[in-house]
Amino acid sequence: MLRADRHTVSLAEDLFVLSDAQDKSAEFLEGLDLELQDPEPFEDWLRMMRGRVPAEDYAGKAKVGHAQSRRASHPAMRERVALGLLISVLSGANRDDLIRADHFVDDAVMFLTHVTMIDIHDFRQSESLSFPFPMHSGTGPTHWLQSIVERRSTATLVRLRLTEAATRRLIWISDPVQIQDSGATDKAIQLGELVADRLRANPVLAETPDLFPLTALAALFSLDAGLIARTEQQLTRAYQAGGSPIFECIRAFAQVFKVHEGFGALSELGVGELTRLIAGIPVSDPLLPLCKSLVGYALHMLHAENDLAFHLIEDAWLRAPNLALNLDHLAILRMAQGDIAGAETAFRNCLQVGSLSPWRYTYDVTGAMIYLAKGDAAQSLYYANQALFRQPKYLGALRYAMAGLALSDKAQDARRMLQRIHVIRPDYDLSDWAEGYLRRTPQHLGSRLVQSLHRNALL
């Protein structure tokens, strides 16, 4: 009956409706009596809400059924609204300025949680266990909110920038606010109110897709061959029509899926083309970390450009851990460098930050790879099986389950894994994967696995 996140507790959608027979003269939340130690803030908020939403409007605009949602306190927000908080853009500012700016944004967002019932996804902090990228739920961000932090002499100035997620259209940018004085909290609340006004004035249609780059990635991780093909076609058309380089970055990432999951012919993008893509994206672009992570992984998996890939993915991790899809890529690249201990540490960080990710199964396969390289076949099998539980048709999980069984001298079980691979992809060539594994990892780590596959007649 309840929904809860970091900011709000609310009634579950569609489980409650307002009766048409309600008292039309009733005031907002009339009859609610809370025993509070300090009731004044709540009473001030009630007075504000009752002044903002007249009783007759509140009753008259309520609708029975799906249209009556949990935004009853803000009936003007009829369409779905979800706000994603992005890491700040710094202009001559330092880490202390960034911390102050985050607290300032927190105050503005806290106001939003009191006066609206929109979903708020925080992409700023790597220690957050939430991973709100949409898969099939349709609950991803519809709008981005980002702070621009500037240092002028001894003053720290912050501006808030609100953009529409699907189109990247700039909706509003605030005037600079100095956040070091005692009135910073009041200023944050004022900006929070302005953000609420802009969100009400700029709703998105219910059928508008979630933030496009993320839904395109969700399509790849669905492992649906038809959906992947259609997504790649859309990406190509959008980029050729003058769209953002991010479309081509995602298409580069799609090639990794096509190669390693056997989906169609490869449309390979060269190293020079990929690096020019990244160079053409402004530093201020909030999705730059995502682009660096995608291109870095493509450079590693398609071209074995491990050093360049490592620098791109590490920078993406430092800029925005929750926004970049580099949580496991960093672990893989450390393993490719022969740093197995570093890879294991990066993998643990990956599991902490991405524990609720809709593509968590790929992280489990990373664990299978790392423990296979350590020579711990049992732990490798554990993570491969975890991935198979989450996504039974993921070839990556089947390959490493097969490899772990082969190294554990369970040849018959390993051959069963190979049979499952051939059921899913009859023409799949395991030798190409083995060759790529040798090319991307230090020789002493990969040779033992390949020898085991040969010994058990799997290659």
List the helices and strands and how they pair.
Layout: E1 2-4, E2 9-11, H1 40-52, H2 55-61, E3 82-91, H3 95-115, E4 119-122, E5 143-152, E6 155-164, E7 170-173, E8 177-178, H4 184-201, H5 212-221, H6 225-240, H7 245-261, H8 271-279, H9 288-303, H10 306-319, H11 329-336, H12 340-353, H13 360-374, H14 377-390, H15 395-407, H16 411-424, H17 430-440, H18 443-455
Parallel strand pairs: 3-4, 3-5
Antiparallel strand pairs: 1-2, 5-6, 6-7, 6-8
Helix pairs in contact: 3-4, 5-7, 6-7, 7-9, 8-9, 9-10, 10-11, 11-12, 11-13, 12-13, 13-14, 13-15, 14-15, 15-16, 17-18
Q: What does this molecule look like?
A:
The chain is an alpha/beta fold and 459 residues long. It has three domains: 43 residues, no CATH class; 120 residues, 3-Layer(aba) Sandwich (Rossmann fold), CATH 3.40.50; 243 residues, Tetratricopeptide repeat domain (Serine Threonine Protein Phosphatase 5, Tetratricopeptide repeat, Alpha Horseshoe), CATH 1.25.40. It has 18 helices and eight strands. The strands form two sheets. Strands 3, 4, 5, 6, 7 and 8 form a six-stranded mixed β-sheet that branches. Helix 9 runs antiparallel to helix 10, helix 12 runs antiparallel to helix 13 and helix 13 packs antiparallel against helix 14. The N and C termini lie far apart (54 Å).
